[in-house]
């Protein structure tokens, strides 16, 4: 029977490929650390005081994630990368929060895939570690969406949800 050319095959990966994908996750974690360090300090205005304090907490959590992901990459016999994905900047508070939200959405989609891939490889403990990270990323997403006054984006449901940049 012909397999649909999507998730089933994407989840069927080697340990080397998993390490490569985790290195991309690590680059995203570095990006998040940098963005939250900077944005938490430069966000100004009374209406952003709460979220600025939350972003400081996010920064520290992203560092924890980077450590956990690096450990998994090392365990798979690969070398953790040292380069962040590019960090966008803006003088505008809403832009900064929007960039963060977009990055969190992307991170969440990736970790959902990663959990399935870990499980397909029988790496159940690794899947569990990533689940713990995913829970915090979803909290970050909610904090940012709330600060922006938008609905939490729907990133559920695997590859189809990749198309969801906007609401229907
Ligand atoms: Fe993270
Ligand atoms: Fe995050």
Q: Can you write the helix and strand succession as a string?
A: HHHHH
Characterize the largest beta sheet: strand count, sense, and whether it forms a barrel.
Answer: none
Class computed from helices, strands and strand pairing: mainly alpha
Overall mean pLDDT stands at: 89
**Fraction of helical residues:** 55-70%
Count, helices: 5
Bound compounds: fe (ii) ion
Termini Cα gap: 33 Å
Radius of gyration: 17 Å
Structure, explained:
The protein has 5 helices and no strands. The chain has 168 residues and is an all-alpha fold. 30% of the residues are buried. The protein binds fe (ii) ion (2 copies). One fe (ii) ion (FE2) binds at residues 29, 32, 62, 65, 133, 137.
Task: Give the gist of this structure.
The protein is mainly alpha-helical and 168 residues long.
